[in-house]
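Fold this sequence, please.
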Amino acid sequence: MIRKNIDNRPIYYDSIWHQMLKTGKKLVKLGYIESKGKPNLFFKSFKSGFKSYDGQVQFTKGVMFADLRGNEVIPIWSDPNPNVYGKDLSVEVFFSEFVLLVRSGCLPRVFTIESDPCDPLNVVYDLLSNLDDILDAYCHRCGADLVNKLDWVSLNEAVEGDRTFGVNYCKPCLEIEYSLKKYRELYYIDLLICELCLKVKSTLNHHITYNPEKIVHVCHSCHGKIHSKPFPHALWKEKR
């Protein structure tokens, strides 16, 4: 490795350089090779399978790149984590390798300046670049390993919000989380002032009247009190 960026400009910050060296060692342990002609660019070859139009599985030699040189948009001294991208790789192979890099502490990021619009990896590029949290591919509910369990066809057809939601749960837990999500959207408004105790809490909607519709936001504790018989405010009781 050399202490320069993609434009051969020197890297002055010791902390950035030391992090690059640590990441480079991790990449080598994972089977990556540093390019001789392009220092700080690492690559790893795969025999990647894909389905042709006649339904037959064909194999091609694909490559995963981990770039520690930075680029004109995100220079290496702004973010010393490796920028990863693939060539002739299936979505499943790219994703499993991306997760391996995450779990090994390399903290990869996805940023493509130019991309072939027909590249099948675009769906995983879009997904990974729009996540708020680092993806470790464990189910957020039960802890199951999701590396080989994600339905990429469904994710490709889903809207953006459902993609980022669906990639964090296994299929059984995803159905539970979708149901909970819909329930929260209908009944919950997070961290509002309870209109009864006037404290900032997680609140839910309570109907005072249905026709005309009148709703108040109350916390769980006060909502239970409203539905108890001795509650003093009769006007807060539900009236249909």
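The beta strands are 33-34, 41-51, 57-67, 83-87, 188-193, 200-210, 213-219. The chain has seven helices and seven strands.
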